[in-house]
Amino acid sequence: MRRRPVTGLLAIAPPVIVIALFVGLPMVSAVLYTLGDTGGLNSTIGSIAQHQHTPERGWLTLDAYREVFADESFRASLVATIVVTLVATVLVTILGWGIALYGRFHDGPLSRLLTGVSIVPMFIPAVIGAYSMLTFYAPNGMLRTIGLALGWDSAPTFSYTLTGVTLGSVWSNLPLTVLLISSGLGGVPQTLIDASRDAGAGPVRRFRKVILPLTTVPTIIAATFSAIGILGSFTLPYVLGPTARNILGPLMDDTYSAFNMPQQAQVMAVVVFGLALVASIAYVWANYRSARRSEVLR
User: Fold this and answer.
1) SS3 string of 173-219?
2) The pLDDT value given to residue 151
3) 93-102 pLDDT tens trace
4) Which candidate, 247, 225, 90, places its Cα nearest to that of 164?
5) Could you give the CA distance from residue 281 to residue 276 in angstroms, rounded to a whole number?
6) How far apart are CA 291 and CA 17, in angstroms?
7) Per-residue confidence (pLDDT) for residue 192, from 0 to 100
8) pLDDT tens profile 38-49
9) Would you say 230 and 169 are in contact if contact means Cβ atoms under 8 Å apart?
10) Are 74 and 68 contacting, i.e. CB atoms less than 8 angstroms apart?
């Protein structure tokens, strides 16, 4: 009995060591670099970077963070990142719920077609989808062409706008959202739904009292995955978004590659990581609630 914990630790040691070396160590090194540490693993990047901050006294400094947060373009991109993430996450969750509900309670060709079409973006590379949407929403694209043919002279164009980035984010995150919510809906016993219907509950009440409480966990997980994916996205906002006041992904790339300021770019990466941690709180809570419910059922 005493050997089992040791055996378990030895079994998980290889993946833990790999993650610690190839994920944990670079993350710690990057955070230290943002605080002014230019030695050790950061010596190479520190020798070629421009406008980097090193501590005049002591070991670490927050000057890089002060510079980044004082930059107006960063603050505008930070606000744009938060707004796009929130709006796209809400939209993709609502749309995913609608598709999943229709597929759950309408067994027919239309529901299967709708579900199938909703997961197609999963098999399309992001760069191809981004350029397709760029062409579709362009001033001379299909949407504007159809609008002009119908007499709509002021048909909108979403290329190179944050609206286009939001639409692209909804498109790219819809498949996983539909699959997760559909899986949660599949676990709702039909007997409970039938019993609530027999008790006189209407569709809205059945949804609020029976379906939604039993699918809260997969809904939160789907929304969290979408939010984290949008926060860290690069291809879609780089292709579809504006040149200024875009989300932080393209701004980090420009700061690193175009201006040779890796320290400031890594500060932005730390900010994105912090936002992702905030979003992951809901994911951790959902898994904790699911584990507690499993223990109660046992």
Assistant:
1) HHHHHHHHHHHHHHCCCHHHHHHHHHCCCCHHHHHHHHHHHHCHHHH
2) 86
3) 999 999 999 9
4) 247
5) 9
6) 26
7) 87
8) 988 899 998 999
9) yes
10) yes
CA distances from 93 to 76, 121, 177 (A): 26, 16, 7
Q: Which residues of the chain have pLDDT under 70?
A: 1-4, 293-298
pLDDT at 182: 92
Give the list of residues 6+ apart from residue 129 with CB closer than 8 angstroms, or none. 121, 168, 171, 172, 236
Rounded CA separation 199/191 (Å): 12
Sorted by sequence, the CB contacts under 8 Å of residue 285 that are 6+ apart come out as 220
36: left (phi over 0), alpha (psi -120 to 50) or beta: left
Q: Is the pTM of this model over 0.90?
A: no
pLDDT at 1: 46
Identify residue 111 by its one-letter amino acid code.
S
Dihedral pair phi/psi, residue 186, rounded to 5°: -65, -25
Residue 236 CB neighbours (<10 A) = 26
pLDDT of residue 9: 77
Residue 151: partners with Cβ closer than 8 Å, 6 or more residues away: none
Q: How many other CB atoms are found less than 10 A from the CB of residue 292? A: 10
Residue with tokens 């936002």: 275
Length of the chain measured in residues? 298
| DSSP code for 156 | -
CA 187 to chain centre: 25
